[in-house]
Amino acid sequence: MQSVRISPVTHPETCGRRPHRFSFSRLREKVAERPDEGETAWFMDTIRDNKGWAVSLRSHYGALFCVTLLMLAGCSTPPRLSQSYPSPEAQQRADIVSVAQQMIGAPYRPGGTTPRGFDCSGLVLYTYQQVGIQNLPRTTAGLFRQTQPVTLDDLLPGDLLFFEINGRGVSHVGIYQGGSEFIHAPVSGKQVSVGTLDNGYWSRRLVRAGRLL
Questions:
Q1: CA 213, CA 126: separation in Å to the nearest integer?
Q2: 81: in domain
Q3: 52: in domain
Q4: pLDDT digits over 164-199, tens only?
Q5: Residue 120 annotated to the active site
Q6: Which domain holds residue 48?
Q7: Is 172 assigned a catalytic role?
């Protein structure tokens, strides 16, 4: 059997960079008998390192057949993972919903605008103030007049839902959180909670949605 000496290899294609020299280790395996050609066996020499690998096939009499596959780190740019970030408006909307959710369980309090107690418009006022939106109207009617009407199909988290409860115009407001649900301070004796437009009581009393952002 003729011996083979494997020397460091320089890949011919360097993609505009300096050639990268490899020092390979070698593994030999017997892969096939070829008695019809008068040969005892073929062997596979595998030469590799952490930058790529090459395979050489040779017979007992020294004929060398090489298939070289070199995967060069220097010739390939690692894939960049795209990372998307929410827009400032989307982040602000998420923050509004987050603040409102943290107020769930706070008691209803007429005229209340703090976590010690809220009325419906007081909850809106407090929640929006926590994300930097100031100078909003204090009453539900004032919020209704200041918002831009939006359809239910165009609702976004953080939008407002206005309801007529007592038959005398808009008198209740909640903060839409998505999935037909809204956070509101209902009535005296209740707590800040989650309502849903899937409930006929609220869907029948909905006047419209409004947007402040």
A1: 15
A2: no
A3: yes
A4: 998 889 999 999 999 999 999 998 889 999 999 999
A5: yes
A6: 9-75
A7: yes
